[in-house]
Task: inverse folding
């Protein structure tokens, strides 16, 4: 009985180790490592637009953020974008803005049938895809009233 119990414990320990190794292997797959950055600023905002692969590498994602350049207490913020291949927009009521920290506006996909980005694209290829200026238009309300600014985003070549 003792010998059977010992084998059962050994089998259970080996099974747990095998399952743990499989879990680590499945979740430790490297995701494709590439991204393309566009940046710009206005008197009150700094904007970023990043084109990157999804975690599984099956689609391209567009990620937009803004960061206040001065302290603000905003009650309402609306944004529109013109990203050539996509125009995400939206409204944020009483957004929590922390000085120096970016505020995420959107994460979206241009769709699988849209522009095909890939690792190793050169500056010319990127700027050809985005053949006009990429723009965020930010409108916000604070204690002094309503304000609107445009942020023109330009491609930042990898260094």
Result:
């Amino acid at each position: 009985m003792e010998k059977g119990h010992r084998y059962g414990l050994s089998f259970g320990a080996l099974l747990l180790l095998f399952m743990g190794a499989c879990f680590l292997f499945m979740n430790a797959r490297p995701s494709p490592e590439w991204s393309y950055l566009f940046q710009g600023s206005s008197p009150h905002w700094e904007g970023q637009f990043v084109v990157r692969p999804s975690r599984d590498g099956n689609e391209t994602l567009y990620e937009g953020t803004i960061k206040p350049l001065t302290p603000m207490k905003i009650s309402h913020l609306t944004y529109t974008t013109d990203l050539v291949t996509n125009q995400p927009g939206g409204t944020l009521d009483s957004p929590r803005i922390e000085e120096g920290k970016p505020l995420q506006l959107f994460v979206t996909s241009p769709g699988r049938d849209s522009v095909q980005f890939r690792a190793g694209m050169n500056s010319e290829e990127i700027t050809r895809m985005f053949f006009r200026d990429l723009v965020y238009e930010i409108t916000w309300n604070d204690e002094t009233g309503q304000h609107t600014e445009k942020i023109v985003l330009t491609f930042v070549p990898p260094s």
Helices lie at 2-27, 123-129.
